[in-house]
Specification:
This protein has one domain (3-345). The protein has helices at 3-28, 39-48, 51-67, 73-97, 103-117, 124-141, 161-171, 176-190, 197-225, 230-233, 242-262, 273-277, 279-296, 308-330, 337-345; strands at 148-149, 154-155. It is built from 15 helices and two strands. It is mostly helical. Helices cover 71% and strands 1% of the residues. The protein is globular and about 45 Å long. The two termini are 22 Å apart. Strands 1-2 form a two-stranded antiparallel ribbon.
Amino acid sequence: MSAARLTGLDLARAWAWLGMLVVNFRVALGVDKDPSAPAWLQAAVEALSGRAAALFVVLAGMGLALATRKLRGSELWKWVARRALFLAAIGGINLMIFPPDILHYYAIYFVLGAVVLGVPRSFWLWITAGLVLTWPILALSFDYNAGWHWPTLTYRPLDSAAVLVRHTFFNGWHPLFPWGAFLIWGLWLQGLQLEQTRTAQRLLAGGVVAALLGFALHRFGLAHLGAQWHEILGLQPLPPSPLYVLTAGGIATALIGLALLAVRGGRSWQWLTPMGRMALTLYLAHILIGMGTMEALGLSPPLRQSGLWEVAGAAALFAFLAGGFAWAWSLRFRRGPVEGLMRWMTRT
């Protein structure tokens, strides 16, 4: 594994975390639409919704493939089971604080990943497509709105097995159908010759083409089929239509290619890579510390109504502080605090 390849993935992971920081602070501050904000800021924040998290999951798939490349059979399952239990535990705690938490879903994604790793690679893309295309079948068969209170963007308590299954597999924040497809796509990408410039260029170009195709199909579909097909043709993560997966997956792929190319151009981006190496630590920190501080200061609704400028300002401040911490920590340690704890608790 080349140093440039690892550094490029760390850079992409830092970008993903920064995007999720903005998206989640927007949710925490209760900002939906803000007509007073400039159009470019509205577009930028909207573009991050669901795309940053998708990049995060694709990179998780790449990391899973890399970490388990020498494991087979029971050793693979032991490693995955321990990581899944760890993520389920901290994700479950985090879920009680921040309902849109993604970590508890990772436990399910990793189990899926272990299953897929036992299947010939030639089937992986077919499984990816199957996860994506199963979702509209579920959406046409069941009520996607069940459990949701859309005016406040909240989901009912997970107080029964049926609700938990529905939330996990179908209509939660990041359900296995279709979000598991991002993880399998990451598994597949990790098998490419990512250290080659030509491969990175193809990822960048192919990702852009896929995203543009998704946008074009969205416009064409709504124009010819009508708004009643929005659930199936939408580009937002809620609901996660096949076109959302295509565009978000394309953007994630393009950004991974761009990151791999960027680190070949010099060291100008390397100040971001410590954040990428401790993305799990910073993800928990932006919820426990960042959102906790905002709530303690009375900045969260209903005590105060904020706008997109406040979201951007809070995200920029936290990113600056987190970047400083990550850089200082990286001078002494290879892994972030939570990453080190997970490695220690799940070691074989």
